[in-house]
Amino acid sequence: MAEIKVIISDVDGVLTDGGMIYHSDGTESKKFSVYDGGGTALAEKAGLDIVAMSGEEAPLIGERCRKMGIEDVRLGVKNKLKESYNIKSKYGIENKEVIVISDFINDLNIMREFKSACPKSAPELIRSEADWVVGVKGGEGVLWHVVKEVLLWQEKFNDALGRYLKSRAE
């Protein structure tokens, strides 16, 4: 974990609980955890980049991710492995410097290519493939937990937290 520079997170089932609510007017709702916004804030203070990547093109995903502080949001991605290589190229990093968070079979290829984590609510197949099963379900702060652990491993957590708290006091 000490070499991680970029976290690539799936959205549905990781940042959300995987459920989709369809309203009678045809719009859709998703439930996100505010804890993940705290994770993105600490990541930013520590220089850790986060990319949200989804196969869906739902505008609400982009809006919520950006509100949480994730600037690199990639929607409508059909080939996530190819896109992950584009991400590596953009950030100038190696495979060992990436961790992917996902919860379902559509991401198995990238989970096998990079370090990987999944929420405890992921199916058994995914949990058995992941390098790390995070102790919370999707939509309950998975990204927060991954950021926190990466920063603890890198011995950057306390500094990032201090910088975050200072920025909130100004």
TrEMBL record:
InterPro entries: CMP-NeuNAc_synthase, HAD-like_sf, HAD_sf, KdsC_fam. It is an enzyme of class 3 (hydrolase). Keywords: Hydrolase, Lipopolysaccharide biosynthesis, Magnesium, Metal-binding. Its EC number is 3.1.3.45. Its cofactor is Mg(2+). Transmembrane segments: none annotated. It catalyses: 3-deoxy-alpha-D-manno-2-octulosonate-8-phosphate + H2O = 3-deoxy-alpha-D-manno-oct-2-ulosonate + phosphate. GO terms for molecular function: 3-deoxy-manno-octulosonate-8-phosphatase activity; metal ion binding; N-acylneuraminate cytidylyltransferase activity. GO terms for biological process: lipopolysaccharide biosynthetic process. Belongs to the KdsC family. Homotetramer. PANTHER family: HAD SUPERFAMILY MEMBERS CMAS AND KDSC, N-ACYLNEURAMINATE CYTIDYLYLTRANSFERASE-RELATED. This is 3-deoxy-D-manno-octulosonate 8-phosphate phosphatase KdsC.
